[in-house]
Amino acid sequence: MVNLRLYHTGQCRHPEWSTRHDRPMRPCTFPMHAAVLDRGGDLALFDTGYAPRFFAASQPFPERLYRWLTPTTAPAADALARRLIAEGTHGAVRTIVISHFHADHVAGLRDFPDARILCSRRAWDHVRSVSRMGAVRAGYLRALLPEDIEDRLGFVDDLPMRPLPPVFHPFREGRDLFGDGTVLLLPLPGHSTGQIGAAFIGPDGAAHLLIADASWSVTALRDDAPPPGLTLRFIGSAADFRETWGKLRQLIAAAPETRLIACHCAASSAPYLVPR
Ligand SMILES: [Zn+2]
Q1: Which of 22, 72, 80, 190 has the fewest Cβ atoms nearer than 10 Å?
Q2: Is this model's pTM higher than 0.85 or not?
Q3: Buried (b) or exposed (e) across 250-267, using 16+ Cβ within 10 A?
Q4: How far is the CA of 217 from the centre of ligand 1 (A)?
């Protein structure tokens, strides 16, 4: 059995139009939630969210462009590590799954020096292959990554593959995070190269799918309102994004009871948020 807890780690501002094409240009606030997957006290994180070191990492040029484009608030009191230390659960974090390497998803990585880190091989190969400017363009801030990341890094591609239940179709198989089939990791590429999501059945028997940034909100997916073409030109792959979007729409149509949760989506996250 797996319990999901979400933590608000900060927020950024963006024109709403850039996240769904049918909305106005006015800037909107988007929260960033980090997820804790709790399997009987054995914890895995699904992303770490913002942490205050984001500001130091985005201080130099060209990294500063990231901060200019997405003005960010990340109070120290909201850092995931601080919240988990206060709860007494920080030491139980064995694994951190990185859905993708955008700075708002990995800023807290250095706060968990003993955890193993998991991502897709495609995502890591991309992080390693781009130039400094290319990294900023892709939404990466390399200073956020721990120096020893290569020693602690594993690839989801190497985990055992298992079939997903029909409530997750058309996603038919995933990689087994805990080795017991409770959480299966699956590819959701497009928004960022090699992005992954997490599928599991909650304690109430409901199917859950963490979709990371495959959409900025679950309502946009239900409304079939993707980001505009201009946004898609700057993401990992517009073609992959559209394919992932189409699959998620198929899932919603076939299994509307499956709960999709997006990292920046206040509405889908609300039932799982741990109050400050
Ligand atoms: Zn992202």
Answers
A1: 22
A2: yes
A3: ebbeeeeebbbbbbbbee
A4: 12
